Amino acid sequence: MLRDSRPCVWFYRVEVSYNLFGEYSVLREWGRTGKRGKALLVWFSNLRDACLAAERWRRRAGRRGYRALEG
């Protein structure tokens, strides 16, 4: 997702993944393009909770002006 803000462009990324320990993680990354951003990794014991959390964070980013990339 990107947020247009003059003179720079902001990004926000949410990713759900499965790790070697049988847990699911949600990675959130955000910041300005071309700069070092921030990242936060949260673990969940099941896929359902991880997906619900990822969707909640994605909706929240949308309310803050980020939009999904097309393509």
Automatic annotation (TrEMBL):
It holds the Pfam family WGR. InterPro entries: WGR_dom_sf (IPR036930), WGR_domain (IPR008893), YehF/YfeS-like_WGR (IPR049809). Coiled coil: none annotated. CDD domains: WGR_MMR_like. Residues 1-71 form the WGR domain. It comes from the Bacteria. This is WGR domain-containing protein. It comes from Paragemmobacter amnigenus. The lineage of its organism: Bacteria, Pseudomonadati, Pseudomonadota, Alphaproteobacteria, Rhodobacterales.
